[in-house]
Amino acid sequence: MEIGPGQFLLARLDDVARWAQSSSVWPLTMGLACCAIEMMSVTSAEYDIARLGSEVFRSSPRQADLMIVSGRVAQKMAPVVKRLYDQMADPKWVISMGACASSGGIFDNYAVVQGIDTIIPVDVYVPGCPPTPDGLLYAVNLIQQQIREGGRGGILARS
Amino acid sequence: MSTTPLTPEIVSQEGNAMVLSMGPQHPSTHGVLQIMLEIEGESVVKAEPEIGYLHTGIEKNMENLFWSQGQTNAERMDYLAPSSNALCYALAVEKLLGITDRIPERAQHIRVLLSELTRIASHCVWLGTHGIDLGAISVFFYCFDLRENILDLQEASGGARMHPNYVRVGGLNGDLPAGYVEKLDALIAKFPGRMRELRGLLQANPIFQDRTIDVGTMSAEDAVAWGVTGPALRGSGIAYDVRKAFPYSSYDQFQFDIPTRTEGDAYARFLVRLDEMEESMRIIEQVRKKLDTPGHVAIDDPKIFAPPKETIALSMEALIHHFKIVSEGFRVPPGDVYQAIEGPRGELAYYIVSNGENRPYRVRTRPPSLYNLQCLKGMAPGNLIADLVVMIGSLDPVFGEVDR
Amino acid sequence: MPSTQQPPIAGAAIDPPSVRPAIDDAVIERVDVQALRARLQALKADGYTMLLDIGGVDYLPREPRFDVVYHLLKMPLKAANVQQVGTPQRFRLLCSVRDGEPVPSVMDLWRNADWAEREIFDLFGIVFENHVDLRRIQMPYDWEGYPLRKDYPVRGPARERSPRPAFALKSNVQAGTPPTGRTLEALQEQVKQARDGESK
User: Is residue C125 part of a domain?
Assistant: First the structure.
């Protein structure tokens, strides 16, 4: 968000807000399929996403910042994903984890939505089938980078 | 937007009952499951699970892939034990091709090894998530640490942690790499201590016992009527295991027991699965001794299994066979086959129909989790919602398999 | 890379189960829809206590079109150890069904037939009589068409593309798998139409 030259105090507040937001991105457990198991591995002791600030994975969208769509989105599940995204409070970010969430993956057929970016806006795509937990950690790092460097977020929390 | 219609078959709406939709977004439903609950206070009057939130059209997808590519889709059904699914598919296609006897011995042993490793890995995820559902969060970290060792082994042999695409029709995709047996030895040495820790965490815990003993009890007749197989059936007193009843690969060469309990409640299934992990390690130790003898890992038929890449530059026939297999695939004689294996959840089977062409005509999966989950309709009424969480955890459904 | 565009090579048999090689995996029998229930009741009385699975197959050029396949297992109810289980007998009952012909449900014989029959109805369109709750199970409840039929395109009904939900974002129209047959002319046409739409 653009902050004018005279708004020094707001700019510093914005930096503080962005630092706070990037240091405590709490994901939503949108674990759908195989990528969800790698997402669970990311919370385990070997990869430990908690050291990046994602201490808790909340199941309620009202309490989460980051929606990690991990897994293939079926036609029946698409309205549910959209509804959950709408229920999240601003500012919110979306990681599309895996090939199926990013583009339909290996399932180019009637049953899978060909990429969740057709229904919700996505910030970071993670390739892989499933991506290794390192890939997901890098994606969270990229989200943090986006927040700190002026992407979605900040004190006014505009999209 | 299509929502679940509240038809009388789902909810009876008599008296003071409240209708609650548990899921598909829920921390304890092990995936995308929606249960339409009719509750009075905290106790369940009727529970109707609604599935289909992960339907991927895998069966139709496989009709458009070559025979040698089918296991990529099959692995993604039961994503906790991918090598098991791939093995079942490969065995079914090999039966149709008539080459079951020509799979080399070493390939059979490594397939058994992979099956048992993924069984332990799958039970680790089950135990970790079951613990988290009940509030025992440390169990999750212990289990996933053990799982990391197994995924290391899978990554070494197949190339990927999950979905390694290592078991192929005709054998395996290459031999085990250098250093694999050392890692396997390290895992075998670490396992008994870790198993003691896992048992010590939950087995004698009075809170865990309070929550799981006499919860979700299923008699043997009920279990068979609902088509339940696997640890859930063995927890109710019937010792049916496909590895013993209809042996496949080289299972008949190894000694192992089938743990069975008679109580039929969630605690019995818990104990059965823990015992199964130890039996799997027993099989792995026996397989480990057989891995020292070298051998081929794939059938020696260039019409079905591509020749090694090194020979392509030297031999015209190898090049042509490789080209044909990659661009056109091999053809399978017409017929149908039903091949079952013992997956971590029960009897996983494929009913494959071949038309004589280079793609399957129909691949029908017999998903164990679908039938294990269906018995929830009979098990749930009369229990608390908290007990429902325990029941789902003890049945261990995987929704990639249920919905396909 | 195979796709729906490439034809399969040498599709031979119209009725594969009748020409199958000698694979010993089950006792196989074929019945008509009229004789189905009686046969299944006899099998259950004979000791086939477990219905493993009900599957459907679409043999499109064949008449009758569908096969509904019942996989049964002779499971003893008193089987506390492996010796008592032994080697159970498998049975495969194939039932030929015409398009539009209803099939009697076996929910009262085996309770797990419920979801299996719902799935066959959902994906093939075969109606089961006397089923308590015959509605779609895998596809959304208002879906049209029966996906696993051979004349249903793999990519879905909407012109070889996966159907886009009604609430799709208009700004991401280009995202996702591009449709087959996408040429430069078609793209230029699309851009031209978008510009004409904006200028209105």
Answer: yes
Beta strands in B100-208 (DSSP E): 167-168, 171-172
Taking a C-beta distance cutoff of 8 angstroms, is the pair C36, C129 a contact? Answer: no
Q: Which of A104, A109, A114 sits opposite C154 (nearest CB)?
A: A109
In a domain? residue C92: yes
* Structural domain count of chain C: 1
* Domains contained in chain A, number: 1
Contact check, Cβ <8 Å, C175/A75: no
Domain of C130, in residue numbers: 23-152
Q: How far apart are CA B224 and CA B226, in angstroms?
A: 5
B24 within domain boundaries: no
Distance CA A132, CA B62 (A): 25
Instruction: Spell out the long-range contacts of B363-366 with Cβ–Cβ below 8 A and sequence spacing 24 or more.
Output: B363/B59, B363/B62, B363/B63, B363/B70, B363/B74, B363/B89, B364/B59, B364/C53, B364/C55, B364/C56, B364/C57, B364/C69, B365/B58, B365/B59, B365/B74, B365/B77, B365/B401, B365/B404, B366/B340, B366/C52, B366/C53, B366/C55, B366/C71
The domain spanning residue B153 has which CATH number?
1.10.645.10
Is A114 within 8 Å of C177 when comparing Cβ atoms? yes
Q: Strands A66-70 and C66-73, how do they pair?
A: unpaired
Q: Which residues of B touch C163 (CB under 8 A)?
A: none
Question: Domain range for residue B368?
Answer: 65-381
CB C127 within 8 A of CB C150: no
Does a structural domain hold residue A1? no
B395 within some domain:
no
Q: How does residue A114 score in pLDDT terms, banded at 50, 70 and 90?
A: confident
- pLDDT top residue among B258 and A90: B258
Question: Which of A96, A100, A108 to mutate to test binding with chain C, by most C CBs within 10 Å of its CB?
Answer: A108
- What's the predicted TM-score (pTM) here? 0.89
Nearest residue of A to residue B155 by CA position? A132
List Cβ neighbours of A77 (8 Å cut-off, separation of 6 or more).
A32, B24, B32, B53, B54
Q: Is C81 part of a structural domain of the chain?
A: yes
Domain count, chain B: 1
pLDDT (0 to 100) of residue B25: 81
d(CA B268, CA B228): 15
CATH of the domain at A56: 3.40.50.12280
For residue C161, pLDDT over 60 is answered with no
Indicate yes or no: CB of A115 within 8 angstroms of CB of C153.
no
ipTM score for this prediction: 0.89
Residues 59-118 of chain B with CB under 8 A from chain C are 59-61, 63-66, 69, 95-96, 98
Is A142 a domain residue?
yes
In a domain, B244, yes or no: yes
For chain A, give the mean pLDDT.
Answer: 86
Instruction: Assess if residue C186 is contained within a domain.
Output: no
With contact defined as beta carbons under 8 Å apart, do B27 and A29 qualify? yes
Q: Is residue A85 part of a domain?
A: yes
Give the closest residue to C56 by CA, choosing from C48, C64, C47, C66: C66
CB contact under 8 A, C162 and A103: no
In chain B, residues 224-253 whose CB comes closer than 8 Å to chain C: 224-227, 237-241, 244-246
Q: Give the closest-approach CA distance of A151 to chain B in angstroms.
A: 28
Task: Check CB contact under 8 Å for C139 and A104.
Answer: no
Listed range (B108-117, B281-290, C125-134) with the worst mean pLDDT:
C125-134
Residue A154: inside a domain, yes or no? no
What residue numbers bound the domain in which A30 lies?
8-148
Q: State residue C11's pLDDT score.
A: 53
Whether residue C75 and residue B9 make contact (CB cut-off 8 A), yes or no, is no
Q: Does B371 touch chain C (CB under 8 A)?
A: yes
